[in-house]
Amino acid sequence: MGLVIINTFHSTTLSQTCFSSSIRYRYQPSSTLPIRIGILRCRGGNTSCCFLHSSSSSSSFSHRFDNFTSKCLFSNNSDIHFNPVVTEEEHSEEDSVPIVHLNSQFFDTTTTTTKPINLLVQDNYIHDFSLTTLQVLTEEEQRTLAATPAHPAALYALYASCFAGNVVEQLWNFAWPAAVALLHPSLLPVAVVGFFTKLAIFIGGPLVGRLMDHFPRVPAYNCLSSVQAAAQLLSVAMIIHAHTVPSTAAAMLLQPWFLVLVFAGAIERLSGLALGVAMERDWVVLLAGTNRPIALAEANAIISRIDLICEIVGASLFGILLSKYDPVSCLKLAAGLMIATVPVVILLMWLSNKLSSGVLDRSKSPQAGKMFNDMPKAGNLVEMGLDSIKHGWIEYKQQPVLPASLAYVLLYFNVVLTPGGLMTAFLTQRGLDPSIIGGFSGLCAFMGVAATFISATLVKRLGILKAGAAGLVFQASLLVLAVVVYWSGSLSRRTPLLFFLCLIVLSKLGHMSYDVVGSQILQTGIPASKANLIGTTEVSIASLAEVMMLGIAIIANDASHFGFLAMLSLSSVVGAAWMFCRWLVNPTDAQRRLFSFDPQF
C-alpha cells in the first residue's frame, strides 16, 4: 500500500512557493505504485501548473485515497526554493514502513550555472509524461534476478568460444618449450624466448589495451584471433625448419629462424593478452550484467575453470602425441588444429553478439569506431604509454592493500617450481616420458580447478584474509619439501623425481587458492575508479618479475644450475607468505575499515 504525502506552505513572499513531499510505502511484493507527474503550461500567462496524482490497482489503497490530487502553482519569473521537509504521521509499530523521498530538485528551473531543464518545450500544449512503473521485488526475487545473466544464451556462446580458443593456446604453451628443448642441451633457448615474450608484455601491454579502445569489440576480437593464429603458425614453421635442418647448438641463438621465433612468440603473447582482457574484463561483464553480481561471479568462475580445463586438455594431448610420434608430426597436427579453430572462434563470437541483440556493438568510449586517421600518431602512442606506466606506478604504491598485491607479484618470481617452459625443458632433458610431463601440467591445472571450490570453504571458515594466508603458507611448506628432495641428489631415480613433481602439484592448490582469494582482496581494497589502472600495472610488474627471473635463467642456463633457480623461486614464495602474514597480524586502520566484515575484525 502506498501513501503520498504532500506538504505545501507559502513563504512571506507570494512569488515563492515551497513544497516538500514524501512517499510512505508499505511493502507488498505483488503491488505496484505508479506515480504520474504532469506539467501544464497555462495559456496566456507566465505561470506553470504542476500536478501529482497517484493510482494503484490495490483496492486497499484506492478506497482510502480516491481522487487524490495535489496541485502546485509557481511563477516562471521568480526564484523557487524547495524545502525537503517530510511531514510524518503518527503510526503504530505494526505499520512502520520505509520512507521514500521525492527529490524536489528535479523541478529546479532557476539554476544559473547550467542550462535549466525545460520540460515545457512548447506553449499551448499539455505535456503529460509518466515515470516507469516499478515492480517491488521480494528479497528472494532480488537474489534470483541477481543470479540470472542478462544474456544467458550469449554467455554460452562465449564459453564455447573461450574453450575453443584456450585449448589451442594452452596446447601451444606446452608444445613450443617441449619442441625447442629437444634442439638444445640447455635451458637457454626456452629462457630467451620467454624473456622477450614477458618483456613485450611489460612494454606493449598498456599500449595494446589503449589501442583496443579505439576499435569496435567484435572486429577487434576477430582481428586479434587471426593475428594470434598467424603468429602461432609462423612459430610452428620455424621450429619444424629447425628440426629438419641440422645446426650446431652453439650457433642456434644466432640463426634467422630463432630470431623469427622470438618475434612471433612476442606477437602471439601480446595478442593472447589482449584477447584475454577483452573477454574477462569487458565481454563477460556486458553479457552477465554489471548489476547482477551473482551471475557475474558465476560467469567469472566458469571462465576460470574453462581456462584450467583447457590447460589440462592441451598439455595432456600434446604430451601423449609427443610420446607416440616425432616432434615434426606433432607440430603439424597442432598447426592443423590452429587453422581449424580460427573460423570456429570467429563464428562463435558473431553468434554471441547476435544472441545478445548486438550489445557488444555498443561503443565503449567516444573514440571507439573512429577511422585509422583519427588514431594517435606513433610518437603520441609512446608518450601515452609512458604516462600510463608512470601514473600506474604511483597509484599502485598508494593502494591500501599493497602488501597483498606485492605477495601476488612475488609469486611470479617462481618460474621453475611450477609448470612452465623451464620446467618442461628441464624434465625433457632428464629423459622423462612426454606423457608424464603432460600429465604433470594437467594435474597442476586440475589443482587450480579444485582451488576454485576449496577457496570458498576457506573464506567461510577462516575469513578472507586468513584464507589468503593459509594458501600461501601451504604452498611455501610444500615447496620447501620439494627443494629438500631435489638437493638430496636422488632425482636421478624415477621414484624421487615423481615425488618431487607430486609436491609441486599439491603446492598449486595453495597457489591457486591465494590467486582466487587474493583477487577478491584486491577487488575489495582497490577503488572502482582505479581498478583497471592498478590491475594492468600489477600485471606489468608481474611480467617484470618473470623477466628478471628469466634473465637469471639465461645466465645460469645449464641444467645443472636448476637447483640454484629452484632456491630463488622458493625464496620468492616464502617471502610472499611472510609479507602477507606480517600485514595480517599488524592491520592498519584502513585495513580494518575495508575488511570490517571479516571475522578477524
Indicate the CATH topology of the largest domain: Growth Hormone, Chain: A
The appropriate CATH architecture of the largest domain is: Up-down Bundle
Strand content: 5-15%
By oligomeric state, this entry counts as single chain
Please identify the structural class as seen in this structure.
Answer: alpha+beta
The order of strands across the largest sheet is: 5-4-3-7
CATH class of the largest domain: Mainly Alpha
Inertia-based shape: globular
Considering the protein shown, what is the CATH homologous superfamily of the largest domain? MFS general substrate transporter like domains
Q: Kindly provide the radius of gyration, computed on alpha-carbon positions and rounded to a whole number of angstroms.
A: 31 Å
Number of continuous helical runs: 17
Low-confidence stretches: 1-132, 365-374
What letter string, H or E per element, gives the SSE order?
A: EEEEHEEEHHHHHHHHHHHHHHHH
Helix content, binned percent: 55-70%
Number of strands: 7
Q: Mean pLDDT, as a whole number? A: 72
Largest sheet: 4 strands, antiparallel
Number of domains: 3
What descriptors fit this protein?
alpha+beta; Growth Hormone, Chain: A; three-stranded antiparallel sheet; 17 helices; about 10% strand; disordered N terminus; transmembrane; Solute carrier family 40 member; transport
